[in-house]
Specification:
Elements: H1 7-12, H2 15-58, H3 85-89, E1 100-102, H4 113-118, H5 132-139, E2 150-152, E3 171-173, E4 180-182, H6 197-209, H7 214-223, H8 230-256, E5 261-271, E6 280-289, E7 299-304, H9 310-315, E8 321-324, H10 329-337, E9 341-344, H11 347-359, H12 370-386, H13 393-415, H14 425-435, H15 437-440, H16 454-457, H17 459-462, E10 467-470
Length: 471
């Protein structure tokens, strides 16, 4: 319990004791101040986590600023439409293509979007003419003449049908010995299986291109009279992948090494029935050719149970070039191990941290914050980069050096002259950017290196023909 002194008692106490007492109270006050400051920092971090958690759960996954001059980053909207897709996509103000076309023999056939839409489709002509009796009844005997046909076109859809191919293979034997021979015939796609190339293509297209679950494909095939289970389809997909697609995957892996710029990323996935408890976190690693600076794109997926360095170390072994990634330390470790490998950073990951910081600030004070100023600087970098899309690699590099490099220099010069607390969100964003400076500058040295890793992040949305492999 604290001791209380009266004024009279204090007047009689020795001076050295008073000094000692004052110093002791000063130390206690400093300790309390530090404890209070630490508690405030913890409370601030908790509040930031709560705010960002609510934003991630209920808000839109957009990083656009309210500024209308904001450059539009390529992104996938978090609010996916399911039940009201027709209402969301429709535009009743769009005019319907004309289905009736009248023309005389002297008029040339009109060309436009409708003709482009119909080109390449087979045409089944269906005639609709009046009989001689009907014409005489309408116009009288020989009282009519034939005009150019009115042509009406409609799409005709033929639902899928299932047939059984019954191959009768001639078998021949010698009359003098046991020698036998069979006539040439197509080899089975999978030994001992009823699956055909056409059926396998339908299953793979439905499951991996159109994202239709196998149980729905099972129901769809049943409506066609085909009794195959989802287990059969799953088995076929696995066997076909092992016997055919794995060969193509390995070939594309070798081809990927011929690109001097590639991109990589990894994302968590939940997997069941892999020898671990249900819901265990695994990782899907994606490797692809560099952004859109090549005409022939390669996108490869590799499933792994962990996120450790051994997986990209094996995949990138012997690669001589530049790999664009996020700030995951594993890639930086590999750069030190593999002499030929250069790692380039992603400006979207840098920008995201400042965007999260901005969301923690009241809107009325956002424009006064350092996070807003840094976001605007990154915005300016992207705006200038967006003007270079149509240039050649060499011209893009020249423009980056002349126009964008000064903006990047100014960005990092500002970062190095501000004082922040590394324990809050803004301090984390600044620290991340400074730690990644070496990698974030790589795109300034090569015109084929993209400014960010978005193409890898959204590879699944923009490139439906993906090949995956499980280790």
């Amino acid at each position: 319990m604290a001791v209380k002194y009266t004024e009279e008692q204090l007047n009689t106490i020795d001076k050295s004791f008073l000094i000692h007492l004052l110093l002791q109270q000063q130390e206690q006050l400093e300790a309390l101040t530090k404890e209070l400051h630490a508690s405030n920092e913890k409370m601030q971090l908790l509040m930031e986590q709560v705010i960002l958690g609510k934003q991630n759960r209920f808000g839109r996954s957009s990083e656009k600023m309210d500024d209308t001059n904001q450059i539009s980053f390529r992104e996938v909207d978090g609010s996916i439409v399911f039940f009201n897709e027709a209402e969301a996509v429709s535009d009743l103000s769009v005019s319907e293509p004309e289905d009736l076309e009248l023309r005389s023999p002297k008029q040339s056939k009109r060309k436009g979007k409708k003709e482009a839409d119909l080109s390449g489709l087979p045409i089944r002509r269906i005639d609709h003419y009046l009989s001689e009796t009907e014409l005489e009844k309408e116009f009288g005997e020989k009282g009519w003449k034939q005009l150019p046909d009115a042509i009406s076109r409609k799409y005709h859809f033929v639902p899928a049908k299932v047939e059984v191919e019954e191959h009768h293979i001639g078998v021949y034997a010698s009359k003098t010995d046991e020698h036998m021979v069979k006539a040439d015939h197509p080899k089975s796609l999978l030994h001992g299986s009823l699956v055909s190339p056409s059926l396998a293509a339908a299953i793979i297209n439905g499951k991996y291109v159109n994202a239709v679950p196998l149980y729905r494909l099972e129901q769809e095939f049943r409506r066609y009279g085909l009794q195959i289970t989802r287990q059969h389809m799953a088995n076929w997909c696995i066997r076909l992948g092992e016997e055919y697609l794995s060969v193509l995957y390995d070939h594309l892996h070798e081809e990927l090494y011929s690109y001097h710029v590639i991109q990589a990323d990894e994302t968590p996935v939940l997997v069941n029935h892999d020898g671990r408890k249900a819901g265990s976190k695994s990782w899907m690693w994606v490797y692809r050719s560099g952004h859109l600076y090549y005409n022939r794109q390669i996108v490869l997926y590799e499933y792994q149970q962990t996120r450790n360095a051994s997986h990209p170390r094996e995949f990138l072994k012997g690669y001589d070039g530049i790999c664009v990634t996020d700030g995951y330390q594993v890639y930086h470790t590999l750069e030190k191990e593999l002499e030929e490998l250069t790692i380039a950073g992603c400006w979207v990951h840098c920008r995201r941290r400042f965007d999260e910081t901005l969301k923690l600030i009241n809107k009325s004070h956002q424009k006064e914050s350092g996070a807003f100023l840094l976001m605007k600087q990154i915005q300016a970098i992207y705006r200038e980069e967006g003007k270079l899309n149509s240039l050649s690699s060499d011209e893009r590099l020249k423009q980056r050096q002349a126009v964008i490099k000064p903006l990047v220099d100014a960005f990092f010069a500002y970062l190095k002259n501000i004082k922040v607390s590394r324990k809050d969100k803004f301090g984390d964003a600044v620290g991340y950017a400074l730690n990644q400076e070496k990698y974030l500058r790589v795109f300034l040295t090569n015109g084929d290196v993209p400014i960010d890793n978005n193409a890898s992040l959204y590879a699944g949305y923009f490139y439906p023909h993906l090949f995956g492999k499980c280790a």
